[in-house]
């Protein structure tokens, strides 16, 4: 049986090596975010059209940091 700490340590290493994430970036990410980024890195997700200017402005207003 794999312990959570062992699996988390391996995933943190992958995120650091493949994505350039620092430990705090890894721990702030949700499992869904990490999975989405890893799928994209493997080429499993085709790029979309992106976000238009209105949606970007809305997102920036909601999340100013």
UniProtKB/TrEMBL annotation:
Highest taxon of the lineage: Bacteria
| Pfam families assigned | Phage_TAC_6
InterPro entries for the chain: Phage_TAC_6
Q: Any idea what this protein is called?
A: Phage tail assembly chaperone
Q: Which organism is it from?
A: Sphingobium psychrophilum
